[in-house]
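Dig into my protein:

:::
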Amino acid sequence: MTIFSCYVFLIIITLGGIGVDVMRHERDRARLQGVLDRAVLAAADLDQTQDPKDVVMDYLTKEGLQDYIDRDTDIIVTPERSGEENIGPLGYRIVEATARSSFPTQFMHLSGIETLNVEAHSVAEERIGEVEISLVLDVSGSMNSYNRLVDLKVAAKNFVNQMSANTRDGDLSISIVPYATQVSFPDSVLPYLNLTGQNEHANCLNFSDDEFLTTSMDLSRERERTLHMSPWNFSSNSYSYDKRSQGQRVHYEMCDDGVRFEHPHYETDASVSRNNREILLFQKDPNEINSYIDDLTAWGNTSIDLGLKWGAALLDDSTSDMISGMADGSETATIPSDFADRPSSYNSGDAMKVLVLMTDGANTYQGAIKAPYREGPSTIWWNAQEEVYSSYNEATNKYFWHHEGIWQDHAYGAQPGSEFDVQVRTRVCNGYGCWYEYQTQTKEEGGNATRLDYVELWEQTTVRFVRNLLDDWMGGSGANNWYNSVVDWTYNNTKDQRVRAMCDLVKGPERGVYIYSISFEAEPAGATLLDYCASSDNHFYKVGDASNEVTIDEAFSSIGSSIRKLRLTQ
């Protein structure tokens, strides 16, 4: 019995000792594995410029584990590069490492096992696959304040360089949607749209409310083309001007007309194209993209909804026919042929889709000309020689000659050379004093009257100017009613609703687009809206807030790092 008890005791001691050896083995293995995991993750990071093998060795050396790995045989880096050469443009890095050690057993040697081997194996990969990015950038007038536009340009260019340097050629496409009151698109888009209305100088769309309930953009749908016009605040004389006598178009136009200005809104050379206010579609050359960013200018109101609509449409395969047509490899192609199959479908998994939405303000408002004032003959006549207007009153079938303040049965200049009488207030004097009398004076009609169609009228004359012209015989109330019948306004409440609806769709599970949003010193309403749009709290950046000292450059840099997929694969 005593002998048996001794055997049992020895067995218990042996099993306990084996357990101790096993726990020591697992402790050392877990420590070695943890250090190795951290090491390969750091080494695979595309942002770091050191030799990945050196990074792994440095981690293990700091933990006193450097003797358990051979730098040359146990660390494999793909692609096989080192140091600065390992930075792009392949767009991925894989680091694989194996570390081995052993320790003498304390109890298991009793059974013939003198040592236990510890091995750790880890693989980390950072890779940018195919990526489609829409940069939706606010270029409204407030971006001229506090150096915002300058700072945005620096940050956006750094982002482009960061993404391009770490992506294989042909994998990364970047579209830029600059938005203000409206969004302008290049002439190359025109053949793919079904538009009504004329505008020889600018390309913008008047979207219907229902189009903000979908991310798609039906190219066959009939849409209004935004007219070249300036409809701004009818209660302010600042917008009551006429450019017709100078042969120029109105400035502060609703849709940017592509003319280069030395100072915003004042033409100096109408032959010089200004494409930096138009959408840049699916480009990959960082030099070309950065040159475009350098030329951005800021002015106008804020329409986040329109920028978002275009940005989302360029990630939706409903526009694929347009993009493939513009990337057909011909001499007239405006998009690299690499992107002929973009935008990819949401469910294909072919590309990661990213929308970066930035504003420094909040939605304001925009105007559009209503039917029937979008086309056809207007009720306004122009006499170029005399530089005078006549307007027609359908109710009385009479024409008001604004420069004379009289009604006639035809527009001034419609019967050149004919005579007409006007009453002239004349000062009369004799030996007893002076007084005023109205005397009849006969004048001869000069020049030629031309009836303006509405497209011509709005191109060179502001809506406010015409309103003031009609005030001559309609009176203030009548002229205001006329103005309200001409201009259709979309205000911030509607725009905010559109943005929220669009963001819900874009970042929803059916599409899986990542929305990063940047509130750049924006007012609370704009910041709240962009916070709502972001895919998560980590996708929202509040730049310039007192509680958050993140710069616009740091925000874009963080987005670039987030787009990459750094992960342990083994």
